Fold each of these.
Amino acid sequence: MAMTRMFLRWTGGSGGDVILKHIKQQNPQLYINCDFGDLTAEGRVSNNSVQHDVYPVIESLNRYAKVSSINVQDLITDITQLNRDHSHYICKMHMFDHSLDPMRQLTTVETIGFSTMFLPFVVQACFCKTLADPTSWLSDWLTKTNELTAVTDYISKKVNTDLKKHHTIWLMTEDAVNIHRTHDLDSATLKTDHWFDSRGHIENFFNQQGYQLKLASVFDRWIDINKQYLPSDTYIKCVQSQTYDYEHSDLNIFEKYSLYALTHSQFKLLN
């Protein structure tokens, strides 16, 4: 079976890197726009973008960048050249925006989604693995999403650490909810939920695209470490019953902001 040319997109914290690490190891001839390192103690697969002057726009899709900074015609040019150079590839991307839909004329775009049950998992995993330094809270996230202005930069330097943490969690959760809704992540064929209950589904998905994939010991270790971010029974019950009791004392702060973001659009400091 011929391998599918694919751009694989996901939001930070969804667990895409651990899958691509296995795919790259088991399909050594495959072009992937990342190099993957070891699994860290925090449960993150370290990775670096492949610096490739031939595909500069594709390289930027692998990082957090402002969508408006992407020239769609330049992206089309990059993908056209990529198709000439490689009969098969998987390119990682973090960008979700319908302005990029023209790329679908030249390649397949697949999504790793997540259910609302896994919303706090995705946000907490991203926060704990990539924003571990308290001095970086708020300002780093605003810089990544290109929302850092002179005003927000001033505020981020003046407010206390606890408020920075809460506001950053809110911004990350709000962003994840918006992407979840506008791109229907709940209906994605692949979802982070499957990482914990259906590894066979993940393997079969990529096998059907022509790729070898057998999830091995690195995936097992990733699961063991990342279990700490799984949603609580209380959060699951709130979502299932649609009560969204974001002030429930049994919820952690990521779960509280997840429930709050599902029903509100303005920041509120939660205890």
Amino acid sequence: MAAPTTTHTLVVPAVSMGNVCQLAADLLVVNFAADAASPAARVVSEHVEPAATADALATGKLTGALSTPIEVFPLRRSGAEPAVDTGFGAYGRVSVLQIRSVVLPGHSRALAREVVGWAQAHGYSRVLVLCGASAFNVPYEARVATRAVADRAFAASPDSLAGALAATSLNADRGAEAARRVAPVVPLERELGALDFTGLLKPVLDACAATAGSDKPVAGEALVRYVFEGDNRDDGYALAGAAAAVLGLRIAGSGLVAPFSWRLAAA
């Protein structure tokens, strides 16, 4: 895969609570990739379980297209555009690195270094981690008082996500009052260390931080949605919608389309 000539953002799921981040990544790929059945790259790693499935991202007729553990999909600004857009504002062009397999125990940091190293080698200057974290990270009194859970955006620098987040809220599906609250940008050193069940979130952000001062630095940022285990498809829609808004992706008026495999899982 040729290195891009513009600032390029790699979206990476944290493989965490409720598989919410992988659901969100699937939605981004299905709705914005030029060809969800043909990834631009497949990443081979010894740090995930070997696995393969068919038609993971099909939205209509099943073709038997093979999905492997780690795949990369360049995105378009909207589903109607015929090719990858080259002007995504501050985030440049955008690709999703979907991790569909289970991370082997004790391999999270090695996989994170591998992912960030791959990003460096292919010209990405920013990694945006999508993560589902346990809602039990939020004090019980706060959950009862607000009837909602405060979602977070963790930024590598104080202003890097603030402008984009001004137009969106991860709480939009939790009622009108919650929707009026903009998801706050929280410095990495505050609150992040207290989060549990976040999978690759901290290892990837640490691996990004380790590139500072190199000739190919990669900034690390994250969108985190607090969730409970269960049917987390709604959380996937919310996280994908927030990521799309932050990255300047235009969702069609009919909303995000889910892959056929989601309907099979719910049957």
Amino acid sequence: MERIIKNAKLAYIPYLIYLAYLHVLMRENPGQDGVLLYIGAIKKQGLAGFVVNHYESWSSRILVDTAIALVADHKILFSMVDIAMYLLLAWSISVILDKQDDAWFNWIIIGCIVAYPMEDMTSAGWMATLGNYIWPLALAMYALSGVARAYRGERLGILRYILYLIATLFATNMEQVSVVVFGFTLLFTLWELIKNRKFYLLSALMAVLSMGEIIFSLTCPGSITRLEQEKIKWNAHFDMYTTMDKLNIGLKYSLIRMFSFDYIFVLFTTILAILVIAKYRNAICGVIALIPALAAIFFRPFEDLNVTDWIFKAKQYGKIPHYDEFSGRTDYSLVYLFLFLLLCVLWGVTLLTQNYEMVMLQTLILGLGLASHLLMGFSPTIDGSGRRTMIFLDFSMILSLLMVLSGNENFLEEKQGLKKSVGILVGVFATIGVINAIMLDLVLI
């Protein structure tokens, strides 16, 4: 066991066993997963007919949905692809952090991924949800690992360029991912070009591809048709909302979901607070850093209550308020409170980050994660989609946490007790994640 714990590559063995066991357990309620309709459509219309019909009448996610449908009819094949994506996700994050050979970091990376609540991946059926969220996330991380390699000065061959760009093309076919990848690669490319006079071809090409995917999703006839159908189903007053109304809805949903005991947020902010207290031994710094974690725990019992603001009515299983309810309610007290809590998070990150460039990078990562969910305010399905659309915000927090740990590696080496405490805390959250996942009854066919 000690040999496994101290070997970076062997850390993936328990992870692989857990994923395999989870996929063996998976069962899907008949009719729950929309991918089953895709399978039937391909058999009836043929692959070309399915793609054309999907483009014209349903969605711009042609690459994502077609790939899922092609493998979903075979449980073993789907499971193999899905497990491979989970492995790719962990490995890509380790490459981004340049920690491929660090056993402790690989355990922490895997622990954070396992801590992510799997019940969020059941809301549209296992196959559809995993394929639409985990696969683009994993491939986006893989493509961004190429940017990290290029930044470190590693030589990228033509084959790697091709693989990274194919991964980008597939990943950014999911709208939220396209916004995150575009925002990051564009700003990274411009920053390095202007400040350091360096041009990174890979990040520039990724920015172009992701921008193309954004334009494609906005102009796809199927996306427009589906949007009209979803307005009827979820919010008939949607067209009456102004741009500020939609941003307000997106922000409030993002904040209430984050602060109503989001497991990843609690893990992230708790470790930040522990590190700040241990490093600075200053009561004021420690209290400020601890406030967000305590707030997330405190707000949990009040998630379903109507307290001073309609956001508590717009909870996970409720309905977005009608326009006449919404337009007259402009109390921003909760927004101010939550923004204060976010500033406390950034305070903790700043204290634990060595230089202003890393602070800017951390802020960009967390900001893009928040933006990925905030933009859901421009969709009438923000309520119906549930917490699954929070995944990119959650993984931006995971990445930020890992960057903080990496930046404080020497301090953790000096404080072995603290390092063990961080590992134990991640292990506790990972164990909760494993238990919750195994207890789920609704899974793959």
Amino acid sequence: MAEGIEAYQDEFGPILPEAYNASQEIRLQAIAYARIRGYDEAVCHDQLLRAAATVPASADFGTGRIKNLQAYLFAVFAQHLRDLLKRDGRRHAIERELQAGRRNGSSFGHAVEQEVLLHQISLGSGRGL
């Protein structure tokens, strides 16, 4: 990190200026990657910032082993997006099960459990229902 330049605190953690700049350099590629997977630019922006916030905590960054910060950020971004896809897949499966249960007259208690699980999954993905 350049002398005298501090990280700023984002909702995802501290973001170093060089990590932020690298995230902006891969922004268009990241948007295209996210759109192919059904996500919009806002989700892409959040996941890029989340990836940039991992840099200060990375042992590889601290030791200088990250030679290509853009490639590192894209790999972390892609992993975050895959995790988000998995959570969304689970959420959609539970939603389908809940709808089927409602049509079949499932118990109220089971329906409440499914709604709570949906809410927890949505909170974990950073996206509301």
